[in-house]
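Notebook, student rotation project (T.W.).
Task set for the rotation: take a protein with a known small-molecule partner, predict the structure of the complex, and write up what can be learned from the model alone. Partner molecule chosen: flavin mononucleotide. Sequence and SMILES entered below by T.W., checked by me.
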Amino acid sequence: MSAPESRPLLFTPLTIRSVTLPNRVVISPMVQYHAKDGFANDFHLVHLGGFARGRAGLVFSEGTAVEARGRVTELDTGIWDDAHIAPFRRVVDFIHGEGAKAAMQLAHAGRKGATQPAPEGNGPLNAQDFAKGRKAWEVVGPTTEPVAPGWLIPRQLSVAEIGDIVTAFAIGAKRADAAGFDICEVHGAHGYLIASFLSPISNTRNDAYGGDRAGRMRIALEITRAVRAAWPQHKPLFFRVSALDGADGWNLDDTVALSQALKECGVDVVDCSSGGLTGTATAAPIPRYPGFQVPFASAVRNQGGVKSMAVGLILDGRQAEAVLRDGHADLIAVGRQALYDPFWALHAAQELGCDPGFAMWPAEYGWWLEKRSKTLVLPKAAE
Ligand SMILES: Cc1cc2nc3c(=O)[nH]c(=O)nc-3n(C[C@H](O)[C@H](O)[C@H](O)COP(=O)(O)O)c2cc1C
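Predicted structure of the complex:
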């Protein structure tokens, strides 16, 4: 094992409030379309538990709806009922048993609710979906403007209804705490409810929740304050932003200002994604390069003075380590590359040379791998 001073930052613990993450590898929230009536089940146990077996320091739930109508699809997990707590508790207990921490992403889809699961198209439900038994429901937004032509027309939320949603986030946070989650994140990205209030493209209201940037930020900050009050003080709170909304309405300066306001409300880490206002965030057919969103995390951290999490095409340990060493972010979230390799963290540790004896691995794997590494003789490559 390397000396502590040469230990990669990626595998150096990080304490935020009273929670110590064993390393800085985070499994990004990823919806899986396996829930029924919002309940987590064996699929979520195995799927999320696998990342904890793979020694990520923090494993995120998928975006989990604080209201039934706030689901993106009818197959998303939810936390709108006390009955949702126990199945999540089972998942969290397993994650803890593997030495990792667990985070819940609290979400409300807003006008992007009632859509197709990604593998079925990721767009609005159509006649074939209804024929298959998929169901739509009333969706809500800042105005009656849909995401794009062909998407559901949302009902405009009244001020009183906005208050109810703020409360739903706070109650969701209490339930996440009861389920044992260590960290909770407010999903303010990808064009969902909060993001649709932030951007002037989707928020053309002229009341206290629209207008200038302060008005458009109001719902985000009210939700954050309510969640912070409901969520135990010793546990960290994250907030996911779309640093750019993807439609030229909300920019990086706005994100830095929002991050500073979030910090004042008690947010510990801003999770820096982007896009999604007028379509899907991850399926957009635009060219992307490794680390394309790292500059957003860097701006939040270095201009905004708030801890940040970088996400987006971070593919290997060396790349992740460089992001941390160069001071661009405090945490590294891995999404699709963890689907490709659920043991991403362990392989990154091998790549960075900080686990030569397989000591980080689950003992019942590592013991064998270490012996194998000592005895393995590879045939010489053919000349
Ligand atoms: C299958 C899948 C599901 C996703 N679900 C969510 C989600 O529930 N909440 C969220 O904020 N982002 C979601 N995302 C976005 C990821 O968290 C991540 O930000 C994105 O995939 C970029 O990181 P990557 O290049 O490492 O995959 C999802 C992405 C994928 C691939």
